[in-house]
Write a structure and sequence with these properties.
The protein contains 7 helices and 15 strands. The protein is an alpha+beta fold.
């Protein structure tokens, strides 16, 4: 059984093996849903059927339906897009910015400096701690084989913006499959270092760095990591930094942050990927002060999940949600707009920078 990583949260397109069972030689041929119900604690027939419907039950390496009959010697695995939960979930009264809610799911606008779910070093104060306090009967809230209550995808600690949380088991399975099949729409706004000359696409396998396992890196030849694609479009140029929109085709850990660094444009104030130092501009004291003041407005990378689109798990209607930049990010953009205004001509010799 794979273990949840204790350093870097995993992407939604990964599948994790929760259980692996080899069928006894004397086992009679029975339906696999009945077989699993008898062997997995806290597991209902409905949970098993949902898992089978979404291709999460594998026998001898092949996906099977709930009516498959197990045979002696079969190797049965349950694989799900969530690591096995290792921590008790403590409900905490933490405010949540709810954008939309119905009986199937809730869309929230995650704030910066908030970890999505508990892990080593973050046992409380997470979005999941808040969710289990504010919402009753979230799917897989109890200690069963599923990983995290209602979570379909995730955002990094300092990334802000839209997330969808399932409120029923069926909604969780339906939404998770959309993320896995890459049929969702995910658009981010990012402020990156450097003058991005044109729109483009970054394609490169992403995997854990061989030097620092907490970071992700790009392996262009594909010898390591997993296939990842990010499309980016220039929204506004400021000469030394650029506001871009990134559209995810895949959903790998730290994908935008790693891909933009790979092409020479680390995210502004990215603490892990080298964006929290002055990479472009002058060495003047006033410019240094200007950048430091911008850094102080956000605790980490300038990255916001602005648009989220998916098919409703019940009505099958396509929904699209948008969110505004958080105040700190917005204020940074406004400062750079002032910097490149006619009164502050973009010039390496200029020492006239907007103040607080």
């Amino acid at each position: 059984m794979k273990e949840a990583n204790d350093e870097v949260e995993t992407e939604e397109e990964d599948l994790f093996e929760h259980f692996k069972i080899k069928v006894d030689p004397g086992q009679e041929m029975i339906r696999i849903d009945k077989y699993l119900i008898d062997r997995l604690a806290n597991t209902s027939r409905n949970k098993v059927q949902i898992a089978a419907k979404n291709g999460n039950i594998v026998v001898n390496g092949q996906k099977v339906k709930q009516n498959y009959k197990v045979k002696p010697g079969d190797e049965v695995s349950l694989v799900l897009p969530y690591p096995v939960r290792e921590f008790e979930l403590i409900p905490q009264d933490i405010p949540i910015d709810i954008v939309y809610e119905d009986d199937a799911f809730v869309v929230v606008n995650k704030q910066s400096n908030m970890v999505v779910h508990p892990g080593y070093g973050n046992y409380s104060g997470t979005l999941v701690n808040a969710l289990v306090f504010h919402f009753d009967n979230l799917p897989y809230k109890i200690q069963d084989y599923f990983g995290r209550p209602g979570l379909v995808h995730r955002l990094d600690k300092h990334t802000t913006g839209l997330m969808v949380i399932a409120k029923t088991e069926d909604a969780l399975a339906y939404l998770a499959k959309q993320f896995y099949d890459r049929t969702t729409e995910r658009r981010y706004h990012a402020l990156v270092w450097g003058d991005v000359s044109e729109d483009g696409t970054v394609t490169g396998h992403i995997g854990r760095s061989l030097k620092n396992r907490k970071l992700m890196t790009i392996f262009p030849d594909g010898e390591f990591g997993k296939h990842a694609v990010t499309h980016y479009k220039v929204l506004q140029r400021f000469g030394l930094v650029t506001l871009v929109e990134c559209r995810l085709e895949t959903g790998r850990t730290h994908q935008i942050r790693a891909h933009m660094k790979h092409i020479g444009h680390p995210l502004f104030n990215d603490l892990e990927y080298g964006g929290d130092v002055i990479l472009k501009g002058t060495t003047s004291a006033s410019y240094k002060k200007f950048i430091e003041n911008c850094f102080s407005l956000i605790p980490g990378q300038a990255l916001h999940a602005k648009t989220l689109g998916f098919e409703h798990p019940v009505t099958k209607e396509y929904l699209r949600f948008n969110s505004d930049l958080p105040s700190g990010f917005k204020h940074i953009v406004e400062r750079w707009q002032k910097y490149v205004s006619p009164e502050n001509i973009l010039d390496d010799s200029s020492t006239d920078f907007p103040e607080d």
